[in-house]
């Protein structure tokens, strides 16, 4: 093989490698901590969501029935994480903190009780981001754009 052919082959291999790396790395652009367009991150988040979240928030992200009304024990049911819920009304930072530290650490509203577990020490920060990225990936594009704008305003 001539040196030209070897050089072209090497360039093709390097280019293919660069494309593969770019495909699998999370998208680092934009205001969001979450990566709803990063296929590998979303796939990891889907698996973790199924194991850690779906039993309350639903496989389809629809939440528990009557999620706006307290249960008999005065705890609030798990809300939906799809476009019908309020998840997308909160910034990435707030969603991350709610998941990691629980509601009590970030709110002064002592009347709002929930059975949501605290995931600090259960999931890594990257796993929490992956779950939230999966959830965001399921929202309609217009809601994702609105959520990105909310993140810009909250910085």
Structure description:
The protein has a single domain, classed as Cytochrome Bc1 Complex, Chain D, domain 2 (Orthogonal Bundle). With 155 residues, the chain is an all-alpha fold. The longest helix is centred in the first third of the chain and has 22 residues, at 3-24. Helix 2 packs across helix 6. It has helices at residues 3-24, 39-52, 54-57, 92-101, 103-106, 125-137, 141-153, and strands at 75-76, 113-114. The chain has a two-stranded parallel sheet. 22% of the residues are buried. It has 7 helices and 2 strands; from the N terminus they run αααβααβαα.
Q: How would you sum up the global shape?
A: elongated
Mean pLDDT, as a whole number?
84
Element string (H = helix, E = strand): HHHEHHEHH
CATH domain fold name = Cytochrome Bc1 Complex, Chain D, domain 2
Outline the secondary-structure elements.
Layout lengths: L2 H22 L14 H14 L1 H4 L17 E2 L15 H10 L1 H4 L6 E2 L10 H13 L3 H13 L2
Helix pairs in contact: 2-6, 4-6
In short:
With 155 residues, the chain is mainly α.
Give the tags.
single chain, 155 residues, Cytochrome Bc1 Complex, Chain D, domain 2, two-stranded parallel ribbon, 7 helices, 52% helix, elongated
């Amino acid at each position: 093989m001539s040196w030209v052919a070897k050089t072209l082959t090497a360039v093709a291999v390097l280019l293919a490698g660069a494309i593969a790396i770019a495909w699998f790395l999370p998208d680092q652009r934009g205001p969001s901590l979450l990566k709803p367009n990063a296929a590998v991150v979303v796939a990891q988040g889907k698996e973790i969501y199924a194991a850690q979240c779906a039993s309350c928030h639903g496989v389809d992200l629809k939440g528990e029935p009557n999620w706006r009304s307290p249960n008999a024990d005065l705890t609030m049911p798990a809300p939906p994480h799809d476009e019908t819920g309020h998840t997308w009304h909160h910034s990435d930072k707030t969603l991350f903190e709610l998941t990691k530290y629980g509601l009590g650490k970030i709110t002064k509203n002592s009347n709002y009780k929930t059975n949501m577990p605290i995931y600090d020490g259960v999931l890594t920060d990257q796993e929490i981001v992956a779950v939230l990225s999966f959830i965001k990936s399921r929202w309609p594009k217009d809601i994702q754009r609105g959520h990105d704008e909310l993140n810009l305003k909250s910085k």
